[in-house]
Description:
- The protein has 13 helices and two strands, in the order αααααααααααααββ.
- By secondary structure, the chain is mainly α.
- The chain has a two-stranded antiparallel sheet.
- The two termini are 27 Å apart.
Amino acid sequence: MRRFLSAVVLAVALGGSDAAAQQSIIDGWAWSTLVPSIAQTDILGTHLRELRNEQERRSTPPPDVSRLGFTSSKARRSANLAAFVEKTRAVDPNGAADLQRLFAEGDIIERIGAAIAPVGLRTDNLADVYALWWITAWQATRGENDTLGRDMYAAVRAQAARALNGAGGPARASDAGKQELAEALLVQTTLIDAAVEQAKGNPARMRQVRAAVAKGAQGMGLDMAAMEITGGGFVPNGKR
């Protein structure tokens, strides 16, 4: 999402680290590092495998996105961001220091919210956040981060909502649980986007980023190489 999320953190994320430290930071983006236990990590993968054809997707009624919304709290956000720093510190102290500096610059979630509003997404709804993460991670595995059309984000948002509602757990989570999950995904999404932007022009570095994001996506049951994005959302591409 060039000129979209990258600017939020580009000056901080990975900026002063040497190659070894940067790789450690990337490895620290693994799904389990930041994302809380309420996440059922195969939600999107299961949903994608269940898609059979274009007609099935077209005949599916619009999902109830409201069940996935939540009322955010500034106090919870401060606690969440502090917890993300501590979780990262256990994997990589340099990466934790970068996150701490980033969070000290202002409310990162508000800044992300302003950045994604033009494509119709919000930070206080899990369907929106999952869609943003899914698209950003998929693009990263291809070395891309261009902003897509608003309709593409809407289609993946609906797809994510169907998967999340079908799984049950996320929709029934408390506001605090939803907020923690959403903010973990938003931070991870932004770091991935910034890493792709910084790796442009450095093929070796881009290969590292692509591989690390693909590996992280596997943790939630998503084989990014086996899917493509269409006007109706993500579909299996038959390559795996």
